[in-house]
Amino acid sequence: MHNQIAMFGMDWRLGRNSVAFSQYGGVHVASTKMVPDQWYHVVYTYGGSGQHAFYIDGKLSPPQARELGTINTQSNGKLYIGSNGLGQFLDGWLDEVMIYNRVLTPDEIEQIYKRK
To answer: What is the 3-state secondary structure (H, E, C) of 13-78?
Structure first.
């Protein structure tokens, strides 16, 4: 399953309560703690060579945890948003999901957040 499923969702393990990206070989977790029943604007970027970043409400959120593994950007597997692909799902709402074919700049991310 390594690198065949990518997941963008929540990591509740160890009280993290934070957004995470995982490709079943490593997990990258934002440091910002999420509060239930509150809306957040969340962005994850990967610029290759270990350049992972999370932005919460338009601002950079330093990583809380990095359990490293390789990220395969050429994977032809499945992408799950709000689920881990194994039957566990986000208990909440998603709105205006966007996927880009390049890394957005911090200024672009802030401008998208301000448009909400």
So the answer is: HHHCCEEEEECCCCEEEECCCCCCCCCCCEEEEECCCCCEEEEECCEEECEEEEECCCCCCCCCCE
Total domains present in the chain = 1
Beta bridge partners of 11: 18
Residue 84 structure tokens: 């881990």
What is this structure's pTM? 0.74
Calculate the alpha carbon distances from 98 to 21, 22, 41, 45, 87 in Å: 15, 18, 11, 12, 23
Range of the domain at 105: 5-114
Where do we find the tokens 């998603």?
94
pLDDT tens, position by position, 30-39:
888 888 888 8
Alpha-carbon torsion (71, 16, 85, 41), positive or negative: negative
For the cut 60, the answer to whether the pLDDT of residue 42 exceeds it is yes
